[in-house]
From TrEMBL:
Lineage: Eukaryota, Metazoa, Chordata, Craniata, Vertebrata
Provenance organism: Dissostichus eleginoides (Patagonian toothfish)
Superkingdom of origin organism: Eukaryota
Protein name, per record: General transcription factor II-I repeat domain containing protein 2
InterPro entries recorded: SPIN-DOC_Znf-C2H2 (IPR040647)
Positions of the SPIN-DOC-like zinc-finger domain: 12-56
Pfam families: zf-C2H2_12
Length: 86
């Protein structure tokens, strides 16, 4: 009965395709806007995508090359902004 009750949430790779999230230093980071989600729960990630980027999937169907490219570039821009603000 000495099991650890602390639940450990971890990032699922599928979230990257589904909700455009990735992990940076064990944090969930949105590839589209760079926002972070405190707890790596599917619900949180899904909610962020739903609230902030609902039209994204409509404009760029999941799995399309264009969508992946867009996400890639926004990450790039974001990491550059991070560097300059340091
Ligand atoms: Zn976002």
């Amino acid at each position: 009965m000495a099991e650890k009750r602390k639940k450990k949430y971890c990032f699922q790779d599928v979230w990257e395709e589904e909700f455009f999230f990735t992990t940076v230093k064990e944090k969930c980071v949105c590839l589209i806007c760079g926002a972070t989600v405190a707890i790596a729960k599917r619900h949180n990630v899904e909610r962020h995508f739903d609230t902030c980027h609902k039209s994204y999937n409509a404009n760029y169907p999941p799995g399309s090359a264009l969508q992946a490219e867009k996400a890639y570039y926004s990450t790039l821009v974001d990491s550059m902004q991070c560097q300059t603000s340091h």
